[in-house]
Every structure is written in C-alpha cells, then in structure tokens.
Amino acid sequence: MVDLATINHYRNMELNGRQTGARLKQLMKEAHVTTQDMADLCGVSRVAVSKWLSGKSEPELFRLYIIADYLQVDIEDFLVVSRCRHQKTEGPAARKVA
Predict the structure, then answer these.
(1) Which of 13, 37, 40, 92 could form a cystine bridge with 79, CB 3.0-4.6 A?
(2) What is the CATH number of domain 4-82?
(3) pLDDT the model gives residue 42
C-alpha cells in the first residue's frame, strides 16, 4: 500500500519513456520475466508492455509500484526528477538571471 506522503513525493517527477523502458527491459531480463508475465502482473496486454519497453509509452505510476515490488527494486529506478507538469514554461526572457 502506498501512503499519501509517497504519492506527494513523486507528484513532481516524470517518467522518461526511453530510460524507463530500457531499465524495465534490463530488470525483466535479469529476473527472467517475459512480456506476457509482466502483462499478466500489471493487468495489461503484451502490446502495452512492448510499448513500455520500446519507450513509446509509459506505465501509470501505480503500475510502476507493482512492477518495482515484484522485481524487488526501488521505484526511483524508473523516475527522473523533472519540472512539475503543472508549471508553464515561459520564453527565454523568463530564464534570464538578473
């Protein structure tokens, strides 16, 4: 079970599809887990897992918790610190340092 503090901690992090897919592929290979095994574990199709592995899409955060627990790794292996998705990027003028 994931607590509220953990969810809030990861709220400002984002996935990087390629990095997530590469790391997942490596961990699955080490654990001898097939694409079908992962699909069954996560309740998705093999096609969905294949898209994760290729970086075309990313699993939802709750599925990453399931995957990390099953593969016995820290969820941070899949996350990268990034700007909050709700922040808007402004033009070059906003980046100037006074």
Answers:
(1) 13
(2) 1.10.260.40
(3) 96
